[in-house]
């Protein structure tokens, strides 16, 4: 694991955008695994800025998002599909047919997850997977568990995740209780993983990810076994790391 220390959120966002931009320049038809949450927003804004200044061409890039709330349609403003449109896709020259998010509207969890697994496998897995990290060490929506998950699956969100994510909904009751998420095995197949983390709230999870035992109690800790992980985090998020 390489850890890049950044001064603050803006610095973290610029550095993360630089790593993603380098991937797009080196391989214009690359496959990007993308994440939602507040943390990557700054990096997406920076990518948009670089696209607008003519530095970045996304026309050949394909994207696969990590996860989606079960039961939300693509045009629901709370869905991750909508989030990606709003924060990134509508501002860059990506081909909409090359962007993929699990289909939350498909209530048949088995079918929705199997279909997504096939799509990601068919694309050859991401060249670069961007990840945020939950306060409890989750990646995608892979919550702390007794075992590491494999492919895309339906997950029951933990109370702590529902509470953390409720800030984006009108009330905690409005947060969907389930989600479809790429599994840990799928995430580990990406050739490069970039984790972004900012703020004190993430400090324990970042420490467990980088320095804790490798355990499904902290799903992100499995990344210690991946050969190419870059953690880009600000000083608050790294405050508990030695
Ligand atoms: C959600 C997403 C994760 C994300 C996490 C942290 O649960 N499924 O992919 O990493 O939130 O979000 P934030 O960056 O807003 O703290």
Structural description of this entry:
The protein is of the alpha/beta class and 242 residues long. 30% of the residues lie in helices and 17% in strands. The chain contains seven helices and ten strands. The chain is globular. The two termini are 14 Å apart.
Relevant terms:
single chain; 242 residues; alpha/beta; three-stranded antiparallel β-sheet; 7 helices; 10 strands; 30% helix; globular; binds 2-amino-2-deoxy-6-O-phosphono-alpha-D-glucopyranose
How are the SSEs ordered, and which strands pair?
Blueprint: E1 2-6, H1 9-26, E2 31-34, H2 41-52, E3 62-65, E4 67-69, H3 80-87, E5 99-100, H4 109-122, E6 128-131, E7 153-156, H5 159-165, E8 178-181, H6 184-188, E9 192-197, H7 203-211, E10 229-234
Parallel strand pairs: 1-10, 2-3, 2-6, 3-5, 6-9, 9-10
Antiparallel strand pairs: 4-8, 7-8
Helix pairs in contact: 1-2
2-amino-2-deoxy-6-O-phosphono-alpha-D-glucopyranose binds at residues 35-39, 66-67, 132-134, 140-141, 161, 165.
- Look at the helices and sheets and give the structural class: alpha/beta
Number of strands: 10
Span of the ends, CA to CA: 14 Å
- The proportion of strand residues reads 15-25%
Oligomer: single chain
Instruction: Spell out the helices and strands N to C.
Output: EHEHEEHEHEEHEHEHE
Low-confidence stretches: none
The general outline is: globular
């Amino acid at each position: 694991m390489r850890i890049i220390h950044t001064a603050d959120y803006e610095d973290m966002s610029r550095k993360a955008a630089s790593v993603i931009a380098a991937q797009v320049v080196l391989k214009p038809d690359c496959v990007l695994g993308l994440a939602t949450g507040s943390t990557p927003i700054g990096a997406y804004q920076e990518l948009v800025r670089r696209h607008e200044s003519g530095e970045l061409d996304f026309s050949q890039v394909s994207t696969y998002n990590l996860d989606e709330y079960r039961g939300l349609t693509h045009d629901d403003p709370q869905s991750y599909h909508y989030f990606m449109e709003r924060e990134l896709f509508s501002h860059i020259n990506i081909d909409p047919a090359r962007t993929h998010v699990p289909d939350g509207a498909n209530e048949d969890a088995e079918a929705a997850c199997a279909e997504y697994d096939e799509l990601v496998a068919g694309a050859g897995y991401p060249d670069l997977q961007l990840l945020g990290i939950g306060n409890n060490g989750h990646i995608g929506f892979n919550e702390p568990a007794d075992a590491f998950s494999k492919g895309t699956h339906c997950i029951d969100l933990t109370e702590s995740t529902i509470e953390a994510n409720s800030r984006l909904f009108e009330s905690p009751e409005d947060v969907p209780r389930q989600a479809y998420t790429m599994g840990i095995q799928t995430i580990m197949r990406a050739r490069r993983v970039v984790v972004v983390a900012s703020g004190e709230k993430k400090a324990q999870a970042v420490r467990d990810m980088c320095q804790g035992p490798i355990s499904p109690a902290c799903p992100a800790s499995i990344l210690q076994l991946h050969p190419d992980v870059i953690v880009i985090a600000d000083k608050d998020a790294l405050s508990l790391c030695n």
